[in-house]
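As a next step, we paired sequence with structure tokens, yielding the entry below.
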Amino acid sequence: MSKPIVLVAAAALIDVDGRVLICQRPEGKQLAGLWEFPGGKVEVGETPEQCLIRELDEELGIKVAQACLAPFVFASHTYETFHLLMPLYLLRRWEGQVTRKEHEALAWVKPDKLGDYPMPPADEPLVAWLRDLL
């Protein structure tokens, strides 16, 4: 049986020390307590880049220029009721202070320590790519 494909855009924010931002999913949400890269579901008529600009403002209170979003790698993962397709963008420049607005917690983590944080199955393979790059 075919499952609907859900397109979600995510960003790996990288600070000057080479640490990556991960966000803990809040209670009451699917996969609550797990750590993920910030981002969200791409709305109808929206590009993945437009989605990230909107989501990063809503979730973290930062302004992002589309030119600063560098496509990096993508995840393709089948969950029980849908198939997730998630492009991950690298982001090294943004305006404003990263603020926790929707998540349980935020953490800036060195790439070799990302494996210490439990993540949704779709996010896990992305960690190895970041470790190799950074």
